[in-house]
Design goal:
By secondary structure, the protein is of the alpha+beta class. It has a domain of about 50 residues. It is built from two helices and four strands; from the N terminus they run βαβαββ.
Length: about 80
């Protein structure tokens, strides 16, 4: 039986474009295939940026939401 990998959390709250995307890119490089990255940011531009980034790089944007000005994303490393 394999071990269950816990999602990696990345807090980019308070940072503005392009820093959140750069931190996501760096974090994903350290993850294994199919690992999950949970990202929190307060940069509204990240909503579009992360969707485009995932599509361009082949990662799966599993979910995104907003709560009290904090944007949350769940990304599965797919490449």
């Amino acid at each position: 039986m394999g071990s269950i990998q816990m999602p990696v959390r990345l807090d980019t709250k308070g940072l503005n474009c392009p820093i959140p995307i750069l931190r996501v890119k760096k974090a994903l490089m350290r993850l294994e295939l199919n690992d999950t990255l949970l990202v929190e940011t307060t940069d509204p531009g990240s909503v579009i940026d992360l969707k485009v980034f995932c599509r361009a790089k082949g990662h799966e944007l599993m979910s995104n939401s907003e709560e009290n000005g904090v944007f949350k994303f769940e990304i599965r490393k797919s490449t």
